[in-house]
Amino acid sequence: MPPLTESYEPPAANAPNLQSAVRERGKGLPGAIRAAIGRALEVIIEWMVIVLGCRVSRAEAPWLDTPLGDSVFIGAGIYEQIAREENLEIHVVPDAGLIGDFETLRGPKFNPSAVHPRVRHFYEHASQYQLEAWSEVALIGQFFLWLLVEFISQRMDQLNFPISPLEMARGMSSQVIQLREKNTGRLIYTGWLRKLKSSGMVMFAGIYSVARIPSEEGPVVKVTFPDRGSANVYLAPMNHPDGSFGLDSSGSGFGRSGFYRVIASGKKHLRVRNFKTLHELFHVYEDQEGVLRTDHKISFLGMTIVRLHYKMTLLPTA
Length: 318
Description:
By secondary structure, this protein is of the alpha+beta class. The protein is 21% helix and 36% strand. α2 (28-52) packs across α5.
């Protein structure tokens, strides 16, 4: 077991015990029906990847390789699982960032120096910020999002999107978790864990890094969400004239920014499907009152499904 820093809250300390709650929901006939529907949806998604995706070598496409979930339950313990499997140490430091140095994103189409200093500071020191969040789910997306959350997300405690704005009323917790090599201290993965305070359920247990991918001229932000396999999102950085910052996953083909569903295909290969119609767009900015904010939009087939809005403020200790 990797050593935990004092500020890291292991999943076992969470109340209530969410994994037990998930198991409790799975008991009896209603639980069996819910599990059957969830498994059927998972199989459909997996077969979409197998049939419509392509098989790639991990060695020849390192940009796609990432930690993969291999169990039904993911939750906040995914970072401990990765640390055990790859012999890493968990570190939580008070000024950790999602992107250690914004300069690593510099490319032909993106200039980090043109980004507002406060926006840059958030990405380089995200641990120093607390989040408030609001959500809006489009009418056309409510049913499909309900299917995802009710039958898949709650079972694995990952990607628990709020269906109702009231689920966000008590706010969202935020914790940046570093996974480092034991001997060298080299940073291998940066995790960003966000949970709904109202339920304790994991909204996002992601892994953040800067990557180079074949058909993009400059570096992109890679965000991985382990599940049964993983969901990888590659976001191209964007400058806006007012100094605000954008991240866009609306690439037009394999090897460009976008959403990729990844599952294992043996030890040396992956099966990958690029969903070209699923896009994410972030806009990070300082408003007229000097408040740091983020607009996050998820769209499918050109239609907006979910809008999330975040307010980021420095912790009093920072």
